[in-house]
Structures are given as C-alpha cells and as structure tokens.
Amino acid sequence: MFTPDPIPRPNGPPASSTPLGDYLSEQHHGVDQAYAVLPRSLAESMPLPWQRHMRDLLAEFHQAFGHLKWPVYRVVPTRYERLVDLDEDQLTEIGYTMEVDDTGELEYRSRDGMPVEDPEQQRVLVPCLDPIPRRHGGSRGAS
Spans of biased composition, class Pro residues (predicted)? Predict the structure, then answer.
C-alpha cells in the first residue's frame, strides 16, 4: 500500500519567504532601492482581468496600510547623465555648481559646497521628459 521509495523533492531552490523583495531587488524599470513606480497610463491600459487583479491587490494594500500618515509623492522622470555634459541650468536644478578655479580649470561642486573629485566619471540623475505616453481623455482626481 505504501511505497518505500522516498518522496521526490521539487527541482530548483526552495521557495523564498520574500518573493516580492527578491523580484524588486533585480533591475527593473521603475524600481530603485526605495520605491516601485507604476506609470498610471500603463496600468490603466492593461487587459481588464489584470486591472481587476491590480485593483483588488491595491485595495487590500490600502486597507492594511491606510492608517499610516502618508506623504504626498511627486514622481519626476529622470535619466542618468555625466555631470560634465550638463549646462548651468541643469546643474542648478540638481544642486551642483560649476566655476572656473584659479588655474582656469572647471570645478564642479555639490550642494554642500564640496568639490566633485572626478566630474568626468560622475553620473547624476537629471529630470527629463516622460517617455511613457499619457492616457488621453483627461485624468481623474488631480492632486
């Protein structure tokens, strides 16, 4: 009635106890160490069954964490650029300055006044136009 053979174990690594964290730790669009951002226009253009699942997940999420004092988030599309490729307006916008030092060389400084050691290799996030198409027909609930 019972087989003496051992129960076969599933192939592959054991299931993770942090599957979402594992996934978000990989390099994906819209994800950094602190946030995962979903462009609303793309989320609203998903197939209807996906939208229903997403709505249900978000409703559970907000029910579980709605008691926390949430700040208002402002998402700004950005891209990495070399510091030396930016003009003065772009530098000012991200908190850097550029000056000519006593030897006639360009010197870059961060917001705290500290000189940037290797500006040729320094990559910084710079605001850019959002390449994700926005949904037409107006937005609901502007905030």
Answer: 1-13
